[in-house]
Design a protein that fits this description.
alpha/beta, 2 domains, 8-stranded mixed β-sheet
């Protein structure tokens, strides 16, 4: 089977994006199973054999004008819904060279609908977290929400990583998809000799993996570590991810350094280390050296920040915004109320005082990860779903 995916960035090294991580995980296992996989990203097709093909990635005059307007307004051009037609052309070029059996892509901006309307290839729309759930309400956001709604409602096939997300989205938007499936996001679980170990970590160090911004709860983590340091002066926080900034009282968006200078006391700033974007190997190393990985997001669907921590047996403290039940509270990690720095700080202090419990819970998370979310478990489910969609599409 030849499966094609769109990825916001490729190659995946250093990309701080959950969809890129998802595609990387799926691709590796599909190739191992003997399938053909092509990734389309930013004007290039990346084939499974390591070869690449430049694509005709030219915009029409109207689309160029839209892109110019987006640039003037400070909006990335590639976020415009118009890009769907461009992507359809890119997939068509690949299909002419190596026939594609099925395409999967995220629901973002309704691009999957554009592909299905222009190509005689089954397209699976994958729910990674529709934009309307984030609460954004700009004019561009409204256009995006409407486009995504149409794509989901008219999807040929629809998959989601959790039943909660599928139920919520199909109830809100409606859905006529003939094929639907609940298939978790996969991850490669570490081997036993590579797991997090209590004896090798700093028992007062915490790690936050995610963008430095409000949706990912960076402000909550900063306030929590400030509180923790008042009682545990040796505690520390490392932050990994893009610096998107947080708002100050005057409405200005400030990056990490400026925000901390304005909002975090100097004694606490000395214990906070911002590392920016790192690759997965570096992040896994930080996870193993930290007592716990924090996930403070105000909204999450099926976050790899949690899944990848569980994959190396690293203890997780997460906000209750995640609707996928990845973390079973007090069994495979700990759940705290979303947006509560006080609750997060108390759990961090509890973790410092209960090290054996941290080790047991981290291990339980890894066991569940290997059993339920390993690529060797999830990808065969995807292949079965793809085959049913492909056969049904051919027989329609």
């Amino acid at each position: 089977m030849h499966v094609a995916y769109y990825s916001p960035s490729w190659p995946p090294e250093g990309a701080a994006n959950g969809i890129v991580t998802y595609v990387r995980q799926i691709r590796a296992e599909l190739l191992r199973l003997g399938h053909e996989v092509t990734i389309i990203s930013n004007g290039t097709a990346y084939f499974g054999d390591g070869s690449e093909m430049p694509l005709d990635w030219s915009f029409s005059v109207a689309e160029r004008l839209l892109n110019r307007s987006a640039a003037i307004l400070g909006r990335p051009a590639d976020r415009l819904p118009k890009r769907g037609g461009l992507l359809a052309g890119a997939f068509a070029q690949v299909h002419q060279r190596r026939a594609i059996d099925i395409i999967e892509m995220e629901e973002s901006f309704g691009w999957s609908r554009e592909l299905q309307s222009r190509l005689d290839i089954p397209v699976v729309t994958r729910l990674h977290g529709p934009h309307y759930l984030t609460g954004a309400d700009t004019k561009l956001s409204q256009r995006r929400v409407a486009a995504e709604g149409r794509a989901i409602r008219e999807a040929t096939a629809l998959s989601a990583p959790s039943a909660a997300l599928m139920d919520t989205v199909t109830k809100d938007y409606g859905c006529n998809a003939a094929w639907r499936a609940i298939i978790s996001n996969p991850v490669t679980a570490a081997e036993p000799e590579s797991l997090w170990r209590l004896a090798e970590c700093d028992p007062r160090a915490f790690l936050l993996v995610g963008r430095f911004d409000r949706p990912k709860g960076a402000d909550v983590a900063l306030k929590a570590i400030e509180m923790v340091i008042e009682r545990e002066p040796e505690a520390s926080l490392t932050i990994v991810g893009p610096d998107n900034g947080l708002d100050l009282e005057d409405g200005r968006r400030a990056g990490f350094a400026e925000y901390c200078a304005a909002r975090v006391p100097e004694h606490a700033r000395r214990s906070i280390n911002f590392r920016g974007v790192l690759d997965r190997a570096e992040i896994d190393g930080l996870r193993r050296r930290s007592l716990a990985t924090l996930v403070c997001s105000r909204f999450e669907n099926f976050p790899y920040a949690i899944l990848e921590a569980m994959a190396v047996g690293a203890p997780v403290i997460a906000s209750d915004s995640c609707k996928a039940d990845l973390v079973i509270d007090r069994q495979t990690g700990w759940i705290v109320p979303t947006g509560s720095a006080e609750a997060l700080a108390e759990r961090m202090l509890w973790a410092i005082a209960n090290l054996p419990n941290m080790a047991a819970t981290g291990h339980a998370g890894w066991v569940r990860c290997r059993r339920d979310y390993a690529t060797s478990v999830i990808v065969p489910q995807m292949v079965e779903f793809y085959e049913s969609v492909q056969q049904g599409f051919a027989d329609r």
